[in-house]
Amino acid sequence: MKQSFRRRFAALATLLALAPLAPAQAHKELGRMWTFEHPPLDFLEAEYGFRPSQDWLDFARLASVRYGEWCSASFVSPRGMILTNHHCARDNVAAVTPGGQDWLTSGWFAKSLDEEVRIPELTVQQLVTMRDVTDAMNEGIAADAEGEALASALAANETKVLDAAKAAEPDLKHELVSLYQGGMYQVYSYKVYDDVRLVATPDLRIAKFGGDPDNFTYPRFSLDYTFVRAWEDGKPADTSAHYFKVKTRGPQDGETVFVTGNPGSTGRLNTIAQMEFIRDIQYPSSLGNIKAQLQQLRAAEKAGAEGDLRGEILNLENSEKAITGYLDGLRNEKVMDVKRNAEARLRETLAGEERLAPFLAAFDRLDTINARKSELVMQLRSSREQRRERSAELQALLQEEELIAKRIGEAFFAVYGTSIPPDATFTLRLSDGVVKGFPMNGTIAPYFTSLFGLYARNIEFANQDPFDLDPRWIDRRGSLDLTTPFCHVSTCDIIGGNSGSPMINTDLELVGLVFDGNIESLANRFVFTDDVPRTVCVHPAIIVESLRKIYDAPAIADEFEGKGAGY
Q1: Quick one: how far is CA 466 from the chain centroid?
Q2: What 3-state class would DSSP assign to 234?
Q3: Dihedral sign computed on CA atoms, order 17, 137, 64, 190
Q4: What is the mean pLDDT of the chain?
Q5: How many C-alpha atoms does 81 have within 13 Å on its Cβ side?
Q6: DSSP codes, 302-326
Q7: Looking at the whole model, is its pTM more than 0.70?
Q8: What confidence tens digit (pLDDT) does each residue in 64-97 have?
Q9: Is the dihedral of CA 10, 14, 17, 19 positive or negative?
Q10: Is the dihedral of CA 155, 160, 164, 170 positive or negative?
Q11: Backbone angles phi, psi at 490, to 5 degrees
Q12: Cβ distance 213 to 247 under 8 Å?
């Protein structure tokens, strides 16, 4: 039977996709990483009293860019200037630093366009169009297709879809995007800027102030920003039609804000069986490997090994802390109970509708696969021949699981349509929230921090690493306005990949630069909550203050704030 089982529910899914959301978000545990082609307009209006127009959405999308293959960014001037995180550009800065200098440690600021340095192999990508290709991707695939037959058919259809997109728009980069684990497919088409030049980057000590102890925490004092610029035809790109103007004074407490960025991956459509395997087997194993690598690298660095190991150590420390936070969330029974109850409700809905009941087999099969995966991992300490056999079986199960996940996504989509957001796919999303502090350590964390706090933390830790400051910050303290906001927090939904994302207000003004979340936000990888989890941003005021009073870069500050000749 060639007619796809998925297609038999296309009409149902379409009706659900077109239906407005209820005034309250019905499935909040699945988060708020909305795609731009299906924004929850009714929900946003009910929740915040703000209904973005299509022009608003198009502007926000086109002013936002994907930075390289790992981060987010945005245009912040009409001449192609882009704002992202220092930690996103760290390797780029090291790559363009002249011999005998250390721009990563000291920072660097171009004094003119002519001084800007092209970063090799870096691109930024602007999402231009999105097109639904679900029917084309499912063309000719039987309802019972599985294994290699299903994988081959999907691969063949993907080739056809992308070839057609390339023929129609050869100047754009086209990507097939699987949403809802294959419940929907889109072709996202990007304009690619491949001439990207370094404009400004602060010194490493202030950019990573607090180091690993302060990572995934708040209050926070990391000046985690870098400016680069997109060039075209030998001159700065003309981005006058779509760029975010900065609101230097930032957002107010309780203000509605949005993050437009590219979250990398989440596991909110995972089944309970998958989450239990990750909790009991996968994450503990990953943490063990990371700890061993860090021990070796730190020993090598202490012994004076050749090469700069700072970046690799920082990345591994970040991964260690992130996975620890994810694991803590999975070990929280309240979090797991939210997921258990949500999955039970979905299964009941599927079982109660004859046309949907066949999806239940996918859930049952994943239960079996993950139980067997756990057994195999525990048995891998056996003889070499047995290890080889069990490793092969484990690999086969992982491949099968990936294909079955498509059925799970189709089940979610058949029942809920686009009233729920898909899992993150390192593609552009719109996340809503409000600027808001949170309960912490028996007290309240404020919605913003200030320069006063930076110097207090520096003094309280005796100017010792990782709370030490470049001498410029010590020498020029008297010239700074210590009431200047440094960081702020909101309830927006983010994860890795969102680093460098702009935070904007309802007037499309940039009011923050996303660079982290608090430790409680890490559990949101699997189940979203916003009572305590927070997104942490660099406040635009401290970026301007540092450019003008620490780094003697008034021209860059003027361009960022839209002041001076030509603005």
Answers
A1: 25
A2: coil
A3: negative
A4: 93
A5: 25
A6: HTT-SS--HHHHHHHHHHHHHHHHH
A7: yes
A8: 999 999 999 999 999 999 999 999 999 999 999 9
A9: negative
A10: positive
A11: -145, 175
A12: no
